[in-house]
Design brief:
Blueprint: H1 2-23, H2 29-39, H3 58-66, E1 71-76, H4 90-106, E2 109-111, H5 137-153, E3 158-163, H6 169-182, E4 191-194, H7 201-212, H8 234-243, H9 250-255, E5 260-261, E6 264-265, H10 269-297
Parallel strand pairs: 1-2, 1-3, 3-4
Antiparallel strand pairs: 5-6
Helix pairs in contact: 4-8, 4-10, 5-6, 7-10, 8-10
């Protein structure tokens, strides 16, 4: 009796499979050809003004690629402990702001979906309230490798990796180097390059604030925390405030009399955002200059 029931239950599945083969359902050669034909049809509606790859329709992306949008940015951030005032997605807020600025300034450039997790080790212990989540270094490097590899298969000719967190550099460099080696003999030349100059909080932003703008922030150049004792600094507060004041809890800090960092009081939200514009422009300019220098070094 049990065999009979199993056989009867399987009949609809077999019948459905046979019907699918006969009528050309998804996965069949006819269906695949129909999708290819649809993908190559001229667009009948106007596209939107965006540099975010994920926001495009497939026909919009296809046409932008034909128009020379063959450069793509892989921006990496993370979720981590930023102490008492900043959201844990600090780096993700920065890369969303700066990624769009870079793509628009570079021209003919798109931004891949953001990599919003960074590498780290979970370990066996439970730590309630711990920041994260994070990925193992192996998983992280594999993710970045797969993203770059897939973007190559989509038709991009330049893939640039840039990260807002220092721990991301190893995985980005590994992915770029591995893909460069894998396709070294390919006639379809594609550039995979990690741009370490984008991570310039301490090397560029801190000297700019203290030496050029003459703002005496109480943080040693090269350090990640200053006199406030927090993993927080003025340049990062400024760009985050430009993107979203709530991300630094601006209103709450004003109310609590804590609108300051490392001895520098926030004169106003407008003042902080104006500083954010200057810092963002500096960071973007520094990274683009590095990309252009790399391009100039390549054989013609």
């Amino acid at each position: 009796m049990r065999r009979t029931v199993v056989a009867l239950l399987a009949l609809p599945l077999l019948t459905g499979s046979a019907l699918a083969q006969a009528t050309g359902t998804p996965g069949s050669a006819a269906q695949a050809e129909a999708r290819r034909a649809a993908a190559n049809k001229p667009r009948t509606i106007e596209g939107i003004n965006t540099v975010w790859l994920e926001e495009l329709t497939q026909p919009e992306f296809r046409d932008m690629l034909k128009d020379g949008y063959t450069t793509v940015l892989i921006m990496t951030g993370g979720v981590e402990n930023n102490d008492g005032n900043l959201q844990m997605n600090k780096h993700n807020i920065n890369i969303k702001l700066l990624g769009e600025m870079m793509a628009r300034r570079m021209g003919k450039t798109l931004v891949a979906p953001l990599v919003t997790l960074e590498p780290g080790n979970a370990g066996p212990n439970i730590q309630p309230g711990r920041a994260g989540p994070m990925l193992s270094q192996a998983t992280y490097a594999a993710l970045l490798f797969d993203m770059g590899n897939y973007l190559r298969s989509m038709g991009f000719k330049e893939v640039f990796y840039m990260g807002d967190s220092g721990g991301n550099a190893r995985g980005m460099q590994t992915a770029a180097d591995s893909l460069t080696k894998l396709y070294a003999e390919s006639p379809d030349r594609v550039v995979f390059k990690h741009i370490p100059e984008f991570y310039n909080h301490t090397s560029v932003v801190q000297p700019y604030i203290q030496n050029e703008l003459k703002i005496p922030e109480g943080i040693k150049i090269g350090a990640s925390s200053g006199t406030s004792g927090l993993h927080e600094e003025l340049g990062i507060d400024a760009t985050m405030a430009l993107a979203d004041p709530q991300s630094i809890r601006f209103a709450q800090r004003v109310k609590a009399g804590q609108a300051e960092i490392n001895g520098i009081k926030f004169e106003s939200l407008a003042w902080l955002q104006e500083l954010g514009r200057k810092v963002a422009d500096l960071r973007v300019t520094t990274a683009i200059n590095a990309i252009n220098a790399y391009r100039a070094s390549l054989p013609k």
